[in-house]
Amino acid sequence: xxxxxxxxxxxxxxxxxxxxxxxxxxxxxxxxxxxxxxxxxxxxxxxxxxxxxxxxxxxxxxxxxxxxxxxxxxxxxxxxxxxxxxxxxxxxxxxxxxxxxxxxxxxxxxxxxxxxxxxxxxxxxxxxxxxxxxxxxxxxxxxxxxxxxxxxxxxxxxxxxxxxxxxxxxxxxxxxxxxxxxxxxxxxxxxxxxxxxxxxxxxxxxxxxxxxxx
Length: 214
Description:
The protein is an alpha+beta fold and 214 residues long. The protein is 52% helix and 12% strand.
């Protein structure tokens, strides 16, 4: 039978091994997940072009077993160029007017307008000219002195019959969902100027694990 000292040594070795293992997981997991997401997105975009061409022109472009041979990186470059080109064209005056007309048509089309308007507003809230998630605040919606980190999305909710109320979106931790609150201004505290919107969002999504950079 192993002695008490041997048991203590074995326990320390196992404890040290477990500590190193979990430390390795902490280091490698974020890197692995990030690489997996980037590679998956790259491959999806890269496969889009040949699949689209094969669908539109199955006879003209097919050369190998009825499929277009894939050139690694070509689809991604074409998709990136197309998005940048559309962004540049949409900034031109006459094209902007055409986009505005097409935008109104889609927003008035039954069924389509719901999907189109929601997706458009969501993307513009993050990256468009009408950014919404750029005002991080603390909002009190539960018990007294219990605060949530949120983002002001509307300064006026008079259209709901609440003249002096503010709309605040509170994201969930480890999720892409959230809750929208309509609260009076006195239930809102502004965060210090040094806390940027990206830092506040990262703090909430991580469940408070991520530290806020000064």
